[in-house]
Amino acid sequence: MRKQTPAEKTHRAIARLLSPQKPHFTAVEAQVRAKRNHLGPRDWLSDLRDLPRERFKERLRVNLQRRATMATRTVAAPEPQASAVPYLSVRNAAAALEFYKKAFGAVEVTRLNQPDGRIGHAEISIEGARVMLADEFPEIGFQSPQTLGGSTVHINLNVANVDALARRAIDAGADVVRAVEDQFYGARSGQFRDPFGYVWTISTQREALSNEEMQRRIDEMYRQQEAPATRPSYVREGFRTVTPYLIVPGTAQLLEFMKAAFGGEERFRVARPGSDAIMHAEVKIGDSMIEMADSNPQFPPTPATLLLRVPNPDAVYASALAAGATAFDPVRDADHGSRGGTVLDASGNRWHIFTPLPGDKIFTSFRSITPHLYAAKPAEFIEFLRDAFGGEEIYRAEHPDGTIPHAQVRFGDSIVALAGGRGRYTPQPSTLHMYVPDADAAYERALHAGATSIQPPATQPYGERSGGVTDPFGNRWFLATHLGAPAQ
Amino acid sequence: MKAQANEVEERQLVEAAQRDPARFTDLYEANFERIYAFVSRRVHARADVEDITAEVFHHAFENLARFEWRGVPFVAWLYRIAANAVADRWQSLAREYGRPVTAAPSVEFDDAEIDRTEQRAQLFRNVAKLPAEQRRVIEMRFVEEKSIAEIAKAIGKSAGAVKQLQHRACEKLREQAERELSGKAGARHA
Predict the structure, then answer these.
(1) What does the alpha-carbon distance between residue B60 and residue B77 come to, in Å, rounded to a whole number?
(2) CB-based contact, A95 to chain B, within 8 Å
(3) Is the pLDDT of residue A230 over 80?
(4) Would you say residue B114 lies in a domain?
(5) Domain span(s) for CATH 3.10.180.10 in chain A
(6) B124 interfacial to chain A (CB closer than 8 Å)
(7) Domain span including residue B147
(8) B146 and B94 share one domain
(9) Which chain B residues have a beta carbon less than 8 Å from that of A56?
(10) Are B7 and B66 members of one domain?
(11) Is pLDDT above 70 for A47?
């Protein structure tokens, strides 16, 4: 096209502006126009001629976004900035463009079509972030994840609100690889696979952390994961310092109940010689062990109250009822920041099935199973636990009248919860199996603090040196030192 | 109540954009069609409508910090920028042309005209929501002013199919326009 002179340009511009008529509208849509009368005075059809071009609206939006990004960026970093832009090879780029619009709110900036119908180059902007893509061209080695069977590169997409965008992406059909959650490096992020084989890590920065702080957090994380490896030698492998020991009638039935209701995994079972009674059994629920044995005249029943931490208390409560438990206290939000309910099993154990509510600080370090003890005078009990077993008080809730509805005492890597007991939660003396560095010394110390002897420490055939005491509140403690030989 | 809720929401959008320029796009999305409808009533050539619309939003972006909430909808502020931009355009052209412009459009911006602008904006939004093929046909037909035959060739369909798409799109737009008109009338009486 010939270039216009400035004079021509001006003249044409004025002619355009002054033209009282819209460009003549050559109507083929007579049928529609005939219906115009239905519309009353509003001639919407003629308005259509003023319709904005879709590309114009998008382009203006992108221009404004660029200005906004620059306005924000000039504060942080001087322009010009080098940048690395991901270039995606996809099978069916047209469909991918539509998907990214729907899933990520992408704005199409550029699309160049090849004569053969493939898209040779396209560019999108996701909240101002540039991404380039094109149809795959296997003939020149530009292959898509679908052709190659995966991609080695993840795209990290930083956005204002990761949760909102993740929902949108999932609605649009993205697969969840890893759900959105807070990360140690100060971001909240999740991972999603798009239908074209790319994995996007969508994230929102929450805290600005120094490299040192991030390193500190990751070290801490690994330390926690390695905790089992640093288990002291006096604790048997697979166990923690304190394990509840359920001495109750009907242990065989109880085992089945734990399997059905809580997904418990039977690890060990041995019968009392010459009878059907179970002499000792071990079950793993979640990350915790429970030991049990049938009660007998020498060891009368001591059913326990156990706090069972689960992600979904409502469902587990229902499954416990279905497995034969009796409802004791229905599931509800408690005012101390957890949601839970209590059931009673056929052997008399109380299971408080709970989950910490968001923001909870009291139960965050609880494992799957935490034994719960009662004492009429909890403050004295806490003192006894300190003096007798070296228990460290880590939490105490206290009512104005001095009663203690909940307290926590830590022994090594285990927590024992305790309370004064209220209403139907009557005190229920229990039996606990606790590993100590030196069973004999621990036994002496406990007696000195006021416990009474059940049996003095002796070396047991199952590889432990262990003795038992009863505390002044009726609970039985088996103080054991693992001797290194495996059980069984 | 609804009007109040909208006002609160709009105010939040404005304040968010004042804090974070990236949020300006929310205001743009909410008001683009209105401004385009306003400008295209006063300037005829599409290139000029687009220029002025872009100018309005760039001006608003630059001056957003100065916008103060006085209980007047945000779009009123945009309309004022747009009205000034249209007037400037006419004047600068008149200066270049060397004679006073007598044919400057004077569209009174009264309640009826505000309604009219809102209706046009709604129509534009409705078109954007049409299925992709229908929208494409409408845009080619009305914006690019292509013939049915040209459109048929461009999108690889028969002329009959293009007419069908156009017919269906126009029918849907007409129904929506009627529904919105009657809905509005109803709301007024409530």
Answers:
(1) 9
(2) no
(3) no
(4) no
(5) 56-76+84-215, 231-482
(6) yes
(7) 130-190
(8) no
(9) 50, 53
(10) yes
(11) yes
Q: Are residues B142 and B103 in the same domain?
A: no
Cβ separation of A16 and B89 shorter than 8 Å? no
Closest chain A C-alpha to B79 CA, distance in angstroms: 17
Q: Which helix (H) or strand (E) holds A154?
A: strand A154-158
Using an 8 Å CB-CB cutoff, list chain B residues near A20: 103
Is residue A422 a contact partner of residue A405, using CB atoms and an 8 Å limit? yes
Partner B, chain A 113-142, Cβ-Cβ below 8 Å: 127-128
Nearest-Cα residue of chain A relative to residue B44: A17
CATH for A231-482?
A: 3.10.180.10
Same domain, B5 and B94: yes
Do B89 and B173 sit in the same domain of this protein?
A: no
Structure confidence at residue A249 (pLDDT): 94
- C-alpha to C-alpha distances, A333 to A327, A357, A406, B42, nearest whole angstrom: 16, 8, 16, 62
Q: Does B174 touch chain A (CB under 8 A)?
A: yes
For residue A122, CA distances in Å to A96, A107, A202, B36, B76 come to 10, 11, 21, 27, 37
Number of domains making up chain B: 2
CB contact A28 to B (< 8 Å): yes
Give the gap in angstroms from C-alpha B137 to the nearest C-alpha of chain A.
12
Task: Tell me: do B24 and B74 sit in the same domain.
Answer: yes
pLDDT band at A283 (very low <50, low <70, confident <90, very high): very high
Domain boundaries A56-76+84-215, CATH class: alpha beta
Instruction: Give the domain CATH number at B152.
Output: 1.10.10.10
Picking from B18, B26, B29, B40 by the largest number of A CB atoms within 10 A of its own CB, the best residue to mutate is: B40
For A69, which residue in chain B has the nearest alpha carbon? Answer: B22
Write out chain A residues lying below 8 Å of B143, CB-based: 49, 51, 53
Tell me the sheet residues that pair with A293.
A247
Strand order in the sheet with A452-460: A265-271, A278-285, A288-294, A242-248, A431-435, A476-482, A464-470, A452-460
Among residues B92, B107, B122, the one where a domain terminates is B107
Confidence tier at A434 by pLDDT (50, 70, 90): very high
| Mean of per-residue pLDDT scores for chain A | 84
Partner residue facing B139 (CB), from A26, A44, A54: A54
Cα A51 to Cα A32, B102, B142, distances in angstroms: 17, 27, 8
Predicted confidence (pLDDT) per residue in A318-336, tens digit: 999 999 999 999 999 887 7
Interface subset of A 146-185, CB within 8 angstroms of B? 160
Task: Say if residue A293's pLDDT is above 80.
Answer: yes
Asked whether residue B8 falls in the same domain as residue B70, the answer is yes
- pLDDT tens track for A130-171: 999 999 998 888 999 999 988 889 999 998 889 999 999 999
Q: What is the ipTM of this complex?
A: 0.88
DSSP state of A337: S
- The answer to whether the CB of A136 falls within 8 A of the CB of A111 is no
What integer pLDDT is reported at residue A488 of this predicted model?
Answer: 41
- Residue A56 has its nearest CB partner, among B50, B96, B166, at B50
Has residue B32 been placed in a domain? yes
Question: B10 with B99, same domain?
Answer: yes
Tell me, yes or no, if B24 comes closer than 8 A to chain A by beta carbon: yes
Residue range B149-189, pLDDT digits in tens = 999 988 888 999 999 999 999 889 888 888 877 765 444 33
Is residue B168 one of the residues assigned to a domain? yes
Backbone dihedral region for residue A421 (phi beyond 0: left; psi -120 to 50: alpha; all else: beta): left
Q: What is the pTM (predicted TM-score) of this model?
A: 0.43
